[in-house]
């Protein structure tokens, strides 16, 4: 790709990176070009025991659990997946620009509710955890929701330096609860499908994120306003099954690879998105918000 | 709604508003309660000549044009609506977490492209306009995309004090273009359906916003990656028609009302969302981003 002089000038003006000598200006590479040039060592495959396959009639949603942040909820979800809790249940809510929610639509009706089997019936709230012990990759920009933002492993997080928490970005997986902060058990789950509702951060236990297949959730017909719960049960989306990748033979698992957020490739790709310089962009933003950063995922040979 | 003492204490701690006397603490009201208590004078009905009805087989999307920001594009769109340019065309792109795009899928093929009739074939870029002369309601919080953010009329905007521009929030209507900044004519349009792509601000001409019916656009099946253009033309969503409300007899127009963003009701509702204090929220954010603020819209008797 050849840059036109005016755009290259813009790139140099706006770049926060050290400039090279004038006779050898840095060539702008798009995030995609940077990612395509990445070494294999920049990628990892999430642990199968933290990987959920949500099988819908229309395809498969792949979810990664976050036991570093919500060990009790992740543990309960693993138990319920092994015991086929969600198989035959449904996505029973889709609220525009907010969330889809799934599990047992009759969970609040003790006469109809499906048994949670050997899963725990009460869990502590897991809204945040100590920052200490986490490998945190900070972003260069500030937002108004958290003193610091960045990534821990495959997860977008906020932090105040003492405590760190998962952020409600597009694709985040949360554990629905009632008014009591410790009323979630991981049976009723939601996925963010709209503009990041960061006001929910540290108010609900987040327990993972969707890695692949968001389009299957985001395009579900919305339920009636204001909350999006389907009044007509026929409009719910059936869940064929939710299973742990670790329950399948290795050769039946999807060989998903995720770009490491602590790699130089990821840092460079974020920077390329902060300051876009190509034939299309006339003005580079010089900024990016946490929830505007996609996590690169590809399907290939499984890697460690 | 009775507040529990701990939550009320939190509300008072976090409130940036003057506190009342200790024996008469301010009762928290939700945004919905504030809006429901609003006087009729806080609402207005957008001008029919700035209101577009996009009629799909599944229902109607109502769009407001923003001639204060993009007079040339709004003018061309009015001309094309009057001349039925979009009737029988389609939504030919849906990219997950980004946009839907509609118009003439063959626009780039001069042999197949539909005639634009008497609409102008070239327009200036309308990325921003002077701040002077606009009634700007500022938000209390900063974001990283613009020095100031707020509302002008029904539109979310960024501003640097000299220039003001429409922001790429959920529901924003933009005019697709090629690489040249003045290559949009308003025939090919997009609506934001994902996390606000604010990096596009001041890079494309925005020309309005969806007021009602977003769920009809956001739930459209996504097209193939990476861009979401349908390879199979049968997957496109037909546009029955796009018409100006002003072309219809008054009694056939939808009596839509929009909350005035310069009203105390709107300011109070934003504040209630910045610091939520109810049985559910355990921690008020003390912050809100421009694109997290919904514009209250209702259907009722038309008002001035």
* The number of domains of chain A: 2
**What is the radius of gyration of chain A computed over CA atoms, rounded to a whole number of angstroms?**
21 Å
Largest sheet of chain A: 8 strands, antiparallel, barrel
Helix/strand class of chain A? alpha+beta
- Quote the average pLDDT of chain A: 92
Biggest sheet of chain A: strands side by side, in what order? Answer: 2-3-13-11-12-5-4-14
**Topology pattern of chain A, helix = H, strand = E:** HHEEEHEEEEEEEEEEHEEHE
Report strand % of chain A.
15-25%
Main CATH class of the largest domain in chain A = Mainly Beta
Oligomeric state: homodimer
The total count of helices of chain A amounts to 5
| Terminus-to-terminus distance of chain A | 34 Å
**What is the 3D shape of chain A?**
globular
Task: Report the count of strand segments of chain A.
Answer: 16
């Amino acid at each position: 790709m050849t840059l036109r002089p005016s755009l290259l000038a813009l790139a140099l003006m706006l770049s926060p990176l050290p400039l090279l000598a004038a006779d050898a200006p840095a060539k702008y590479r798009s995030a995609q070009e940077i990612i395509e040039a990445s070494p294999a060592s920049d990628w990892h495959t999430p642990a199968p025991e933290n990987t959920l396959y949500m099988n819908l009639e229309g395809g498969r949603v792949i979810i990664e659990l976050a036991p570093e942040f919500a060990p009790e909820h992740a543990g309960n979800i693993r138990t319920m997946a092994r015991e086929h809790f969600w198989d035959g249940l449904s996505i029973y809510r889709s609220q525009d620009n907010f969330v889809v929610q799934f599990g047992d639509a009759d969970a609040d009706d003790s006469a109809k509710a499906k048994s949670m089997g050997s899963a725990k019936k009460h869990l502590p709230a897991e809204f945040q955890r100590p920052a200490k012990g986490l490998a945190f990759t900070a972003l260069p920009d500030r937002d108004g929701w958290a003193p610091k933002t960045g990534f821990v492993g495959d997860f977008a997080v906020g932090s105040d330096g003492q405590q760190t928490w998962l952020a409600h970005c597009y694709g985040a997986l949360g554990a629905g609860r009632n008014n009591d902060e410790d009323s979630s058990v991981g049976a009723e789950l939601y996925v963010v499908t709209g503009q990041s509702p960061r006001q929910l951060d540290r108010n609900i236990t987040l327990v993972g994120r969707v890695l692949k297949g968001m389009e299957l959730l985001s395009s579900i017909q919305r339920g009636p306003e204001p909350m999006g719960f389907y009044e007509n049960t026929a409009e719910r989306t059936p869940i064929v099954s939710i299973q742990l990748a670790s329950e399948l033979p290795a050769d039946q698992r999807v060989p998903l690879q995720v770009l490491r957020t602590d790699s130089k490739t990821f840092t460079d790709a974020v920077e390329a998105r902060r300051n876009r310089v190509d034939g299309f962009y006339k003005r580079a933003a010089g900024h990016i918000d946490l929830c505007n950063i996609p996590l690169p995922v590809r399907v290939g040979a499984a890697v460690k």
